[in-house]
Amino acid sequence: MALKSAIGKQYAPAIDEFETPPDIKLGDIAFPCFGLARGMGKPPSEISAELAQKIEPKGLISKVEAHGPYINFFLDVNTVGQETLKEILGQGEKYGTHKTGKGKKVMVEYAQVNTHKAVHVGHVRNIVLGRTVSALLERIGYTVICSSYHGDVGTHVATTLWGLIKFHKDEKPPKIKRAIWLGGIYAEAVEQMENEDCREEVKELNRKLAAGDSKLRSVWKKTRTWSIKEFTEVFEELGARIDKKYFESEMDDPGRKIVAELIRLGIAKESEGAIVVPLEEFGLETFLVLKSDGTTLYATRDLALASLKFKNFDIDRSLHVVDMRQTLYFKQLGKTLELLGFDRPFIHIPYEFVKLPGGAMSSRKGDVVTYDELREAVFEKTYKETKKRHEDWSEKKIKETTRQISFAGINFGMLAPDVSRVISFDIENSISFDGFTGPYIQYTGARISSILKKASYKVSKEIEFKTEEPAERKIMMLLAQFPQVVLSSAERMRPAPLAAYLFDLAKAFSEFYENIPVLKAQESLRKSRLDLIYSVRIVLENGSRLLGFEIPDKM
Fold first, then answer.
1. Could you tell me which of 70, 52, 62 has the C-alpha nearest to residue 7?
2. In angstroms, rounded to a whole number, what is the distance separating the alpha carbons of residues 477 and 536?
3. In a 10 Å sphere around its CB, with 0-12 CB exposed, 13-18 middle and 19+ buried, how is residue 268 labelled?
C-alpha cells in the first residue's frame, strides 16, 4: 500500500480508517491523520502535507493531495471501474467473499427462545441478528455452526404449567398456535403471583417437576413439544439455520459436575451455603454458580453448555447473541471459563431491545407483540399496497411479492439500526418504498431489472468502463468498496454498516438514473452503463441476501 510505505513501520493504517470525502472534488478516498498525530506529536495537517509529498501517483492512484488533516487520493476511475466490473460480472453472487476465516470454526448461539412462551418481536431482532452474523462470517471463509439454547425448565415453565392445570385443565387447546396460547396462560398466571399462596403452589409444582413427578412430566413433555414445533417454524420462515439445539433440561447434571470441579481447583468456594466464584480481583462482581438450597442457576447450566460446545465441535470461538442487559453476566461467565482452563475466545455479541410504540415489552405482563402478530400486520399492509399497485397481477404473484417485501421490511428494520440502539419498530415505515428501508433497496433492484429487460441486456466478455460523469464515478467507487464493507461488517459482527452501504448504493443509483441517460445513451456509452447498473443489481442482491431478504424482478 502506498500510504503504508510512506508512513513506515511506525504505524499500520487499518482499512476502517479510510473515508469517502463529502465532495467528489476532494478525491475518491481520504485518510485522516488524527491517529498518526497522537503518536508522532505533530499537528495532523503537517503530517498530511508531508505524506502527500512522499506518495507517488502510479498504478490506480492518479493524484494525491493534502487537505487539512486529510490525505486525499484521486483514483484512475476508468481503470478501477473496468477492473471492478470485471470482478462483479465475472464472480456474480461470489463477489464480496473472502478467505480470512478459512480453516477456522466458530459457533454462533442465537435464537434463545424459551419454551412455554410465544416468540415475540424482541426475539425477532435476536434471530435475524444471529442469522446475519453467521452469514457474514461464512462469507469471509469461516466454518459456522449455528446453535440455539432454550429454557425448557425453571420458574417460567412451572408458572405456565400451574396456570394451565389450575385455570385451563378441562379446556381443549387450539389446533394451531398452541405456543401463543401457552404464552397467554403464562401472562395470566403471573398476574396471580402477588398472592403468597399462589407463589408457594408454583414453587411446589416446580419441586415436583424437578423430582420427576410422572404426571407433571407428561404435561411438560407435551407442552414443550408444542413450543419447539412452533418456534422451529419461525426460525425456518426467517431463514435461521439451526444446526444444533441445546436445552437447559440437559445441563443440570453436567453443570453440577463443573461446579464441583471449580471447588476442587479452588476457583469456587462456599458462601452462606451457596457456591460462588470470587471475581473482584478482575474488576467483576462475585459470580453465583449454585444456590444455597442446592438448585442450579443459569450460570450452572451455561458452564456446562460452554464445555459441551468446545468438546463436541472443537470450535475456535464461541459467539453468543444475547441482549445488552446480560453484558456483566457474560463477562463473569467468560472469566470463570478462563480460570477453568478454556483458552479459546468466548464472545458476547450484545444488542439493545425492541420497544413497542408505548414502551418496552414484557412477556411477564402479557403486553408483548408476538412474532405472529407482527408478521400478520406487516403482511396485511403490504398485501393491500401491492394489490392496489398491480390489479392485473395474479393472486399468486401478489402473495409472493407481499412475502418478499414484508420480510425485507422486517429484516432491514431490525438490522439497520446499530446493535447499540434501542429499536422502536414502526410497521408503516418498515415497508415504505421511500427512505432508509429494505423495500427501497428492493425497489431499486426491481427498477434495474426493468431497464435491463427493455434493453434486452446480456453480459458479454467485452467490458469497458469509461465516464466523465460524477454520478457514474460515485456508483463505481461504491461498487469497489463492497468487499471491504462485507469484511468489516463480518469482523465487527455488526450488520448495520452493510445496511447503510446498500442504502447509499441504491440512493446513488437513483440520483444517477434521474440525470444520466442509459437506454437513450449514445452507443459508445450504452453498453458501459448497462454493465454498470447490472453490477449495482448484483451487489444489491448479494448484500440483501446477507441481511435475509430477496430482491424481486417487479414491485
1. 52
2. 11
3. buried
Bridge partners of 320, per DSSP, are: 109, 348
> End-to-end distance of the chain based on CA atoms, in angstroms?
44
The whole-angstrom separation of Cα 528 and Cα 507 is: 20
E strands, 292-351, in order: 317-321, 346-349
Tens-digit pLDDT profile for residues 4-15 = 888 887 787 877
Amino acid at 479: L
For 174, the grid coordinates are 387450539
Quote the CA–CA distance of 64 and 268 in Å, as a whole number. 60
pTM for this one? 0.91
Architecture category of domain 371-547 in CATH: Orthogonal Bundle (1.10)
What is the per-residue burial (b if ≥16 Cβ within 10 Å, else e) of 148-162?
bbbbbbbebbbbbbb
Burial string for 437-471 (b: 16+ CB within 10 Å, else e) reads bbbbbbbbbbbbbebbeebebeeeeebebebeebb
Of all helices (H) and strands (E), which one includes residue 143? strand 143-150
Provide the 10 A C-beta neighbour count for residue 304: 23
Mind listing the pLDDT tens digit for each residue in 483-542? 999 999 999 999 999 999 999 999 999 999 999 999 999 888 999 999 999 999 999 999
Q: Does domain 2-75 have CATH number 3.30.1360.70?
A: yes
Q: What is the pLDDT of residues 270-300, one digit of tens each?
A: 999 999 999 999 999 999 999 998 889 999 9
Cell matching residue 331: 463477562
105-254+290-360 belongs to which CATH class? Answer: alpha beta
Smallest CA-to-CA distance from 242 within 324, 394, 126 is with 126
What residues form DSSP beta bridges with 288? 276
Q: What are the DSSP calls for 344-380, one per residue?
A: S-EEEE----EEETTEE--TTTT---BHHHHHHHHHH
Alpha carbon separation from 382 to 387, 395, 541, 555 (Å, rounded): 9, 14, 21, 11
